[in-house]
Design a protein that fits this description.
Layout: H1 2-25, H2 30-53, H3 56-59, H4 64-101, H5 105-113, H6 117-128, E1 135-136, E2 139-140, H7 147-153, H8 159-172
Antiparallel strand pairs: 1-2
Helix pairs in contact: 2-4, 5-6, 5-8, 7-8
Length: 187
């Protein structure tokens, strides 16, 4: 009877194995992997918290060995999951930095300025013709910010970095375009 029961089980295992392998071979996005690891962190923390609330399980002779083994395993896995979460967050940040650095000027300006996008594009077009390398004496970049403004609000070589700096200047100036000579373009 065991032989007849084992054979169908083996066939079922063969049918399931390719599906598992297919799931493993499909590359998950960094965000999906992060969500999975964050779930693992929560589970392991709950296990550790359980034993903090029920310390008798760690001391009773009949449960001590198993409880301590489960607790140690949860602590090890928590450490590994937290390390993976940190690594994945760094990878996501690097990916986002690359994405932002590769944005074209119009997309970068809209990403930063949001609802003020059209006005910001008009000002940047007037100031630099949407060229990140534009230069007019001390004035540089998309928004032609001077050296003092760049020292206060930053600057960068990418369109996104220059748009962020101009947005900081825009916000500090009262959300108007008065610091730019092309302020009339935003009207």
């Amino acid at each position: 009877m065991l032989a007849t029961q084992a054979a169908p089980g083996a066939n079922a295992e063969e049918r399931v194995a390719p599906e598992r392998n297919a799931k493993r071979s499909a590359p998950a996005s960094l965000e999906a992997r992060l969500a999975e690891k964050l779930g693992a962190v929560r589970r392991h923390r709950r296990t550790i918290h359980f034993f903090e609330k029920h310390p008798a399980l760690l001391h009773r002779a009949e449960t001590r060995a198993r409880a301590r083994a489960v607790l140690r395993k949860a602590e090890r896995r928590l450490t590994a999951a937290e390390t993976a979460v940190a690594r994945l967050r760094r990878a996501i940040a690097r990916k986002e930095t690359r994405r932002l650095a590769s944005l074209r000027p119009r997309a970068a300006i809209c990403d930063v300025f949001g609802s003020d996008c059209e006005e910001a594009i008009a000002v940047a077009w007037c100031e630099s013709r949407l060229t990140t390398t534009a230069r007019n004496g001390q004035y540089l970049g998309l928004f032609q910010m001077g050296s003092y403004a760049r020292s206060l609000f930053g600057h960068g070589s990418t369109a996104h970095a220059q748009a962020r700096a101009a947005h900081r200047y825009f916000v500090v100036s009262g959300r108007d375009w008065s610091p730019w000579s092309c302020r009339w373009a935003a009207s």
